[in-house]
Design a protein that fits this description.
2 copies of one chain form a homodimer.
Chain A: H1 40-55, H2 62-69, H3 73-79, H4 83-107, H5 112-123, H6 131-142, H7 145-171, H8 181-202, H9 206-224
Helix pairs in contact in A: 1-2, 1-6, 2-3, 4-5, 4-7, 5-7, 5-9, 6-7, 7-8, 8-9
Chain A binds a DNA duplex through residues 2-3, 20, 32-37, 40, 61-63, 71-78, 82-83.
Chain lengths: 230, 230
DNA sequence: AGCCACAAAATGAACGTTCATTCATTGGAT
DNA sequence: ATCCAATGAATGAACGTTCATTTTGTGGCT
C-alpha cells in the first residue's frame, strides 16, 4: 500500500481489469492443454482470500499467494495489475456475490427475526466461509485510503441490508421504533465481528462461535423487541 | 520481529523494559541534568499511538513516528529496540494503565448498569483518547503471532473486567442468568468497536458516536435485564 | 567567571535486507 | 514454425536499522 503516488500505469480501476479468458469449464481436468488458463485467476483469488484472512494484507507476500495457488510469482501479474489489485478484485468480484446471497436469503424469508438469524449465519461464514468477511473487516481497518474507497461502498451496502430488515421490523411493530436502524445494524455487525475475532483468537470450535452468536442474538432481539404490552 | 541479535543497550524485552529513568519522580522536572532524556520516550510513545491508530502498524514508517515526535529517526532506537518494540511497549506501558483506570472507575460505582456506562465511555475513548483502543483492536487483527502474544493477555483482562460486571449483575438478579458473561462481554466490546469503526469511517462528529453508543446500550441493557417482573 | 575535557544524547546519511514487480526464457499446443 | 501462457531468477526501490559525527550539558580547574 503506502505509495499513493505510484505513477500507476493505467489503473482504470476494476472495469475491464484483466482480460485473459473467463471460461467456466475446465476447472480441474486441464487435460494437458495450455488452456488451463482460466480457473487460474479464480484459484489466485481464492488463495489470496485465504492468505489475506490469515495473515493480513501487509504481512502477506505475493510469493505466498502464488504458492498457495500453485502458480509462479510472475503468473499473478498476468491476471492482476499489482498486489493491491488482487485485494481490490476481491472486493469487486466476491463481495458483490456475497451481497447477492445475502439479499436472496433475506428475500426468501418473511419473518424479520428469522431474517436476522439468516444474516447472522452468513456473517459468521456458516454459509460462505468466514475468510471473506475477515478480509473485508481487517482490511477495512488496516489498508490505505485508496483501498478503503473500494471496500467502503460495499460495506455500506452490507449494513444497509441489515438496516432495512430492522426498519421493516419497526414498521410492522415488532421492533422498538426509538432506535436508529443504522445504529442497530452497525452494532449488530460489530458484535458479530467481535465474537468472531475473539473466537478466532482463542482457536475454539466452530460450534462455539455458533453458540456465542445465538446467545448474543437472544440478548439483541430481546432488547430490540417492543417493550411488550402485556 | 527478527533481530534477537542486537547488542542493544538496555532494552531487554518487556520485563524491566526501561532503564533510563522509570521512577515515579522526575517525569517532568528532571531538574537540570542532561537527564532531560525522559519525556522523550514518552513523546515517542504518544506519537506512535497516534500514527499507528491512523495508518496501522505496517503502513507506518519509523520516520513518520520520528517526525511526529519531533526527534530524529535514530533517536527512536535509543529508547526502543525496534519498530516492533514500540508497539509492544504501547501494550506494556499504556494498556495496563488503561486497565487501571477501568478497574478504578468500575470499583467507584456500585450500580451495575452505571458501571457498564462507565465502561462504554472509557472504551469510546471519551476518557483516554480513542487512539489507544484503535491500536489495540487493529493490531490485534493485523500483527504477527508474536505481537499478538503481547496484546492478547491484556485484551483478555479487559474483557474480564466487563464479564465480571455482568456476572455480578446476574448475581444480584439484575441481569438474565441464561447468558454467559464472557459472551456478553465480548459482544458488548465488539459492538462498541464496530460503532467506533463505522463512525471513524464516516468521519462524523464525536457526539454522534456518543449518541450511537447510548442507543446500543439501551438495546443491550434492555435485552440483558431480567425479562420483567413489573 | 572563563575554559577545558568528558560523556551522554541526538542526529541523519548510509547500509543491507526484504519484497513487489519485471522480463528473458521455456515448453506445450496448434 | 509460431504463439503465448507460464515461469522464476534478476531488478530496483522502499524502509528498518546502524553508526560515525555533532550537539548539549556537567563538573573541575585556574
Amino acid at each position: 500500500m503506502g505509495s499513493e503516488r505510484h505513477k500507476n500505469r493505467q489503473s482504470n480501476r476494476g472495469h475491464e481489469t484483466r482480460a485473459v479468458s473467463h471460461g467456466q469449464v475446465d476447472e480441474r481436468g486441464q487435460a494437458g492443454g495450455h488452456e488451463r488458463a482460466e480457473g487460474k485467476r479464480e484459484r489466485i483469488l481464492a488463495s489470496a482470500i485465504r492468505v489475506f484472512a490469515e495473515k493480513g494484507f501487509y504481512a502477506t507476500r505475493v510469493s505466498e499467494i502464488a504458492k498457495a495457488a500453485g502458480v509462479a510469482d510472475g503468473t499473478i501479474y498476468l491476471y492482476f495489475k499489482s498486489k493491491d489489485d488482487v485485494l481490490i478484485s476481491i472486493f469487486e468480484d466476491r463481495l458483490s456475490r456475497l451481497l447477492e446471497v445475502l439479499r436472496k436469503e433475506v428475500a426468501g424469508e418473511s419473518n424479520v427475526e428469522r431474517q436476522l438469524e439468516k444474516i447472522v449465519d452468513i456473517q459468521l461464514g456458516l454459509i460462505d466461509g468466514r475468510d471473506l468477511a475477515e478480509v473485508l473487516t481487517v482490511n477495512l481497518r488496516q489498508s490505505s485510503k485508496l483501498l478503503k474507497q473500494y471496500a467502503e461502498p460495499r460495506f455500506r451496502e452490507y449494513l444497509c441490508i441489515i438496516a432495512n430488515v430492522i426498519a421493516s421490523g419497526q414498521a410492522e411493530g415488532t421492533f422498538r421504533k426509538d432506535v436508529s436502524p443504522g445504529i442497530a445494524a452497525r452494532s449488530l455487525w460489530g458484535a458479530l465481528d467481535g465474537l468472531t475475532m475473539t473466537w478466532a483468537l482463542s482457536g475454539a470450535e466452530p460450534s462455539n462461535l455458533r453458540k456465542a452468536a445465538r446467545q448474543f442474538l437472544s440478548i439483541y432481539l430481546a432488547g430490540l423487541k417492543t417493550p411488550r404490552q402485556t
